[in-house]
Amino acid sequence: MINNEAIEKRLFASELNKNLIGKKVSIAGWVEDVRPLGALIFLTVRDVSGVVQVIFNKSNTSQNVFLTAKSVARQSAIKIYGTVKESKAKVANVEIQAENIQIVSKAQHPLPIDPTGRVGSSLDLRLDSRALDLRNPFTSAIFKIKHIALQSIRKTLLDEKFIEVNTPKIIGQAAEGGANLFSLDYFGKKAFLAQSPQLYKEQLTLSLDRVFEISTYFRAEKSHTRRHLNEFVSVDIEAAFSYKEDVMDILEKMVVKAINDVLNNCKKELKVLNRELEIPKVPFERITYSQAIEDLKGSGLKIKFGEDLNTKALRRLSKRHKDFYFITDWPTSLKPFYIETKKDDDKISESFDLMYGYLELASGGTRVSDREKLEKRLMYCGLDPKNFSEHLKTFSWGMPVHAGWGLGLDRFVMFLTGMKNIREVVLYPRDRFRLTP
Ligand code: ATP
Ligand code: MG
C-alpha cells in the first residue's frame, strides 16, 4: 500500500496541467467510473475540483494493485499515486499513469442516490442524502456559486466601511410582534429564536455607525412555498446618518458586483447549471407601490391602496418589470413599526423592496430614529412600548438617523443559479416537513 510519508502533497484535479508531465503526483477523490479493457483499467476519479482519468497498465503495476483497481467499488474514497502523462482525450490535457492505489474507504452499494446524476433522483431523495448529492457537480456548482457570492458581498460591504457583527439568535422578547417566532424553554423562561437582527443592528448604529451581519434566522411560517424556509440566511446592513436612497445604492452596487464576480469566477459552474447570467442594467428601475397598483390596474388586476401585493400580483408585475427593480413607498400599514413615514403623508412609508421578477429579494428603508415617534408607531401597530423598553432606552443616547435592509441570501442565490426551488440552494433545508438530515 501507499506509504503516506513518501508521497508529496496531494494535488487537486484542477491543479494537474501540462507543466507536470513526467512528474510523480498523488491525488485523492472518489471513483466515478471503472472500465477494465484487457491489460488496461481506466478509472475516472472525481474530487471537489473536477475529474482525472487514471490508467493502470498491467505491465507497469503489481498484480495486487491491478486487481485492487479492477474491483474497486464506485464512489469509494481512494488515493492514487502515479506519473502525469499527456492525454489524448478531448476533455483533459493530462492523465495519470497509476503506480499505486489505496482504498481509503469503500462505498457500500446500493447507494441511496447516484451522485453522478446519470440516474436521476427526486429532490427529496437527494436532500435525504445531501452529503452524497454534493458529489454531483450540478449540486456542488450551486454551493460554489453561493460561496463566491458571499465573498463578494463581504468585500463590497467592507469597502463601504461596514463592520461585521454577530448579534444574539436567542432572544427574550418578540422583536417584531411575536407572530412567526419559534419559542423555546430557556432555563424556565420563555425565549425565542431571532427572526431578524433588526433591533440590534439599529442600536449598533449609535456607536459602530455602519454594521452588517450575515447569519441564519428563523421564522415559524407555516406556508410551504418554493421561496420560503423556516431557517434562512439573511445579509443585513444598517447605516447611521443615512436614508433609504443611500442604502438602496449600496444594495444595487453589491448585487451588481456579486453578479460580476460570479460571472468571472464561476464560468465552469454556470455552464454545468446551464445558467446564462447577465449583468443587469443600472440604475435598477424604481417604481412606487402606487405606480405598481396602477400598472396592475392596466393588466386587469384591482388592488386597493393598503392591500399587500400577493404572488399573483407580483407575477403580473414581473411581466412588465423583467430585470431587478425596486418597489418603494409602501403603505405604512404593510410595514413594521420601525419604518419611517413620509414627512407629508404618514400613510406612506420610507420603504423599499428589491425584486427580481416575482421574487422579493430584500426589504429595507429609513428607520424611525425619534424615540417618541417610535413609541407611537409601536402603539399604532398594536404593540406595547413597555415590552420594548430595552430597545427604546437606546434612542435617548444620541441615536442617529439610520437606514438599512435585509437581503435573503438564499433567494439571491436562486437568482444567480437559476434554481426555482429554494431547497436546491440550501445545504440542509428546514421546512415544515423537513427537520433531517
Ligand atoms: P415574503 O413576503 O417573501 O414572505 P418578508 O417580507 O416576510 O418576505 P422580510 O421580513 O422583508 O421578508 O425579510 C427580508 C428578506 O429575507 C426577504 O426579502 C427575503 O429575501 C428573505 N426571507 C424572508 N423570509 C424568508 C423565508 N421564510 N425563507 C427565505 N427567505 C426569506
Ligand atoms: Mg419583505
Give a verbal description of the structure:
It is a single chain. By secondary structure, this protein is an alpha+beta fold. The chain is 27% helix and 26% strand. The chain folds into two domains: 6-105, OB fold (Dihydrolipoamide Acetyltransferase, E2P) (Beta Barrel); 132-425, Bira Bifunctional Protein, Domain 2 (BirA Bifunctional Protein, domain 2). The strands form three sheets. An eight-stranded mixed beta sheet has the order 6-10-11-16-15-14-13-12, with helices on both faces. It has a five-stranded mixed beta barrel with strand order 1-2-3-5-4. It has a three-stranded antiparallel beta sheet with strand order 7-9-8, with no helix packed on it. A hairpin with a 2-residue loop joins strand 2 and strand 3. Helix 4 (137-159) packs across helix 6 (244-265). The chain is elongated and about 85 Å long. The mean pLDDT is 95.
Q: Evaluate the radius of gyration.
A: 27 Å
Arithmetic mean pLDDT: 95
Count of alpha/pi helices: 12
With strands numbered from the N-terminus, the spatial order across the biggest sheet is 6-10-11-16-15-14-13-12
Distance between the termini: 35 Å
Q: Please report the total strand number as a whole number.
A: 16
How many structural domains in the coordinates? 2
- CATH overall fold name of the largest domain: BirA Bifunctional Protein, domain 2
